[in-house]
């Protein structure tokens, strides 16, 4: 399914549920917000987000702990979960999505290109998804957006 179709489904389900969404993006660099805002009617459910490409932004805007960044690195389950949970609180939304990873080419933070973490947070639950994606930088980022939207879509029950 294309990112556009998944984003449309997410927007439709959130609208039916009268719920809203925010995002905290690292690897996707605003692509997730773009995928959502490309859909007509998204303004009813999409509140906003933070592009936290640097550790400083993760710490200062999303309140990710310095100790977790140092211990686990920016591409980790612990950090992506903190990103999502902080985004949920910062924007006072019903749901938050967060993405972090290595798009490549090559390794970063001791992780190979295609290593991705996604988190979905709500007031009731939070969970993470680990991915190992093949392909170019563009393919990895596109697949990360699709995977994040799909993870949220699966739990939305209109």
What's the layout of helices and strands?
Blueprint (H helix, E strand, L loop, with lengths): L2 H15 L3 E5 L5 H7 L8 E6 L3 H6 L5 H7 L4 H15 L3 E7 L13 E8 L3 E7 L4 H19 L3
Parallel strand pairs: 1-2, 1-3
Antiparallel strand pairs: 3-4, 4-5
Helix pairs in contact: 1-6
CATH class: Alpha Beta
Mean pLDDT: 96
Annotation, overall tally of beta strands = 5
Along the chain, the helix and strand elements come as: HEHEHHHEEEH
Query: What is the CATH homology-level superfamily?
Result: CinA-like
Which structural category do the helix and sheet elements fall into? alpha/beta
Going by CATH, the architecture would be Alpha-Beta Complex
State which percent range the strand residues make up. 15-25%
Largest sheet: 5 strands, mixed
Helix count equals 6
Helical residues, percent: 40-55%
- How many separate domains make up the residues? 1
For the biggest β-sheet, the strand order reads 2-1-3-4-5
Low-pLDDT residue intervals, each spanning 5 or more residues: none
CATH-assigned fold name: Maf protein
Radius of gyration: 14 Å
């Amino acid at each position: 399914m294309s990112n556009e179709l998944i984003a449309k489904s997410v927007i439709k389900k959130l609208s039916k549920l009268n719920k809203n969404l925010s995002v905290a993006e690292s690897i996707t660099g605003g692509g997730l917000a773009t995928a959502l805002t490309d859909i007509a009617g998204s303004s009813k459910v999409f509140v906003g987000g933070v592009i936290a490409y640097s550790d400083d932004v993760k710490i200062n805007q999303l309140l990710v702990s310095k100790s977790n960044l140092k211990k686990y690195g920016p591409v980790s389950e612990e950090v992506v979960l903190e990103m999502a949970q902080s985004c949920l609180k910062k924007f006072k939304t019903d749901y938050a999505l967060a993405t972090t990873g290595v798009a490549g080419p090559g390794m970063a933070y001791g992780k190979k290109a295609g290593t991705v973490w996604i988190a979905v947070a709500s007031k009731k639950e939070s969970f993470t998804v680990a991915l190992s994606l093949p392909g170019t930088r563009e393919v990895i980022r596109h697949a990360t957006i699709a995977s994040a939207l799909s993870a949220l879509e699966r739990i939305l029950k209109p």
